[in-house]
Every structure is written in C-alpha cells, then in structure tokens.
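Changelog-adjacent note: as of this version, every example in the card shows the full chain rather than a window. The one below runs 487 residues end to end.
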Amino acid sequence: MAIEIRQQLKLSQQLVMTPQLQQAIKLLQLSRMELLDMVQQELEENPVLEEGLDQVEEKDLPEQEAGEDAEAAAAEKTEEAAESASQEEETFNDFDWQTYLEGYNMGSSGGETAYEEDDERPSFENLLTRKTTLAEHLLWQLNLVRIDDRTRFVAGEIIGNVDDDGYLQTTMEELVAATREPLEVVEAALKTVQEFDPPGIAARNLQECLLKQVEHLEMQGSVVDRILSECLKDLEARRYQAIARSLEIPLEDVFEAAKVIANFDPRPGSSFGQEDVHYIIPDIFVYKIGDEYVVVLNDEGLPNLRINSFYRSALSGGTEVDKKAGEFIQEKMRGAIWLIKSIHQRQRTIYRVTKSIVKFQRDFFDKGIEHLKPLVLRDVAEDIEMHESTISRVTTNKYVQTPQGLFELKFFFNSGISTFGGETIASESVKSRIKDIITGENPKKPYSDQKIVEILKDYNIDIARRTVTKYREMLNIGSSTDRKRLF
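Full-length structure tokens:
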C-alpha cells in the first residue's frame, strides 16, 4: 500500500472557551456577596463602567461584534475617531478634566462631611470591628498580675500554645526546653495562667479543665469533685449506678451532681473563637398572591451598571483620542458590555430555574416540607431547555425566600425514598419526619434506629435501618445511648 500526502476538507464544530464565555460561566456560580465584590472590582478597574440610577437593558447596549470582525471593526472605529477628532482638537483641549474626575470622588477630604444628611450615615452596627481573641484576652490579664519577669515570659509562651478551645497543646518538658527555665518556674507560670478567666483555661485535658472549674466554684471535696476525679469514664458513659456503687453514695446524689457538671464548659475558649454571624440575603423571593406564586428577583444592593457616556462619545468621534487610547477604550468597552449582558443572563437564568422549581414543588410551597417531592437537575434542565451543569451552577450558593422559609435552591433537589404504595417521597421529607420522631420521644427511653424504622412504616415509608442511621448523623443527632437522659 503506497503512502501519499493529500489534502482533505473536513467540516467540524468545537466549543472554544473564550475569556468572555469563562466569565459568564463564572458569574453563574457566584453567590450574591461574591457577585457584589466582583462588580465593585470591575467598577474600580474599568473606567468605561459606571453606576447609574436606571438599570441598563441589553437592547440599549452597543452592538457587539465577534471574532476577527470585532477586531477589525474596533480598529476601523478607532482610526475614524482619531481622524475626526483632529478637527476638534481645540474642543478636546478645553475639556474640564478636573471637574470630570471630581464627579467620581465618593468621599470627602479635609473637614467637609461626606454625608449631606444624618439619615445617610451608616449605622454604628455596620462599622467594621474585630472581636477580642482568646490570646489577647489572656495577655491582657497577664499584664495585670504582679509576677517576676521570668514567670511572665514563660506565661506568655504558655498562652501562645493554648488552642481555640482553651487547652494547652504542649508538654511541660517542651516548655522547659523552649524557655530554658527550670520546671518549677514553668509550673508556677502555668498555675498563674490557669487562674485567668475563663475558668478551666490552659488545661492539659478534659478532667483538669473541669476540676479547675470546680475550684473556681469552691466545691473541692464535694460529690462533683469526687465524680470528676475518680469516675469520669463512667460519667461519660452515663453509668450512674456504677458511680453510686463506687463512691458509696445514693443514686439521687449522682443525678444532682451530674446536673451541675452538665453546666460546666468543656471548651472554655470557644466563646472567643466564634466567627461573626453572616446573614444570608436571598437572591430571589417567592410570594403567594391568591392561588398563584409570583417569583421576584432581588436586585437590591446590586449596582445598576451602564456605559459611561463620555467614553461612548469618544468612540463615536465626539471627542479627540489617539489610536492607542481608542484601542484601550474599545477593549474596556467590550469587557463592560459583556459583563452587563452576563449579569442580565445570570438573573434571567435564576428566575427561570426558580419558576421551574415552583412548578415541580407546588405541594411543598402549599403544605410544607412533608410534601417535598423527589427532584433531580435533569427535570429542571429539560423543563427550561438548559444543560444540567448550568442548573447546577445556578443553584449553588443561591437562596430563595418562600412562604415556608429561607432555603438554598439545591435544597429542592433530592433523591426519592420508596413507599409501600409504590410511590416515592423526598429524602428531605424523610429526614424531617425522623427529626420529628426523635423530638417527640421520651428522653429516658429514646428510640433506637430499628424502632424508628418501624415507626416510619406507620407513615407508609419503606426505609432500611442503615439509612435511618445515615440521615440521623446528617442531622447531627446522636445515637439512642447519647440521647438517653435519666433525669
């Protein structure tokens, strides 16, 4: 068989991930706060973009060419703008740039106030603050005590090795080696730190943490002290009768002591390590008006972007610009137009997806979570004629406010559990049912997972015990042993 070289024509299609397409896909999966940050960054970096009072519609945007034709058109427009601008050089030189730039000054300098009225001032609650850390709280107390410099130095090392829960994460030998101080000085420094607030801080284990809190309450020698010192393992396993036999005390005294211990804090430093609460702002609202549900996008706080009229005029030949400046403006113009279109497309897609979810989950919006139906991404994708990956991106980190409460859009997509009647019920509905069963149980005799399976059969739900265990763990609910309360 002869080997030869020949030319062939082949017609094919392929998807090219242009930077604009990548930006549009990225916009779909951004949360509301991330979108606001991105828009704010674009407003700072792109001079063609500005925030207007009225939102720009896509029909008002300049026509966008694509590919090589766009580059050629941009170059042609730039040359034409430069040629026509040469005739108006005097007008361009007389342009008041200082006044133009002052129009973008959002703050104030000097003694002038940035707000014309007090009502426009941000509330003090919205000012940026930083919570005191556990280390700062301990160092502040260290500066108030009267100790020698050597002990103070070792105490600072101890504070630096206390974790967010308040436990010391190093040994005495390591502290001796790190500080080059004798063991007596290290022990004295540790004793000093353990007297700080909160009680139980800088403990080396749970037992020491709880016993330090006993000392703080001046309960040395009490039943509580004896239980923590001698029977901590039995207390963790709730073997109260074994504790009573070991300490030779009445069972009622063990119950009373256990109630006191239950109020102790096993993680004394956790109150300083808590992060600030971030409130969720819904991306979309669902209102019930009469017998119909209305979907409304939440555009509050999202800047209304538009193209700056000065740069639009510069490209059309109304202002003199050189060729390089024209190319720069044209590039920024294309980026601004694509961003505005992508945001509009993102909002429309969220609206369509939510409308489809409302159609599929009408029983949920009418009656509650018990009537949530099984739903997969393919169902919504086929309904609105989009790809499943697009639906997945749109429903990520997007929240909807409904008459039933605030939910993430992904909440409405869940698998189905079979019933004895041959129908299916959403897994979220089963989780809700399990939570209700456990909430209504007798804490002295909590239901086992097998018992929950039998109770669910009364609701016509066919489910395995291991599935109940999985759902219970997903709800952060302990086993029947962990939930058992004898008092």
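Structural remarks: The two ends are 92 Å apart (CA to CA).
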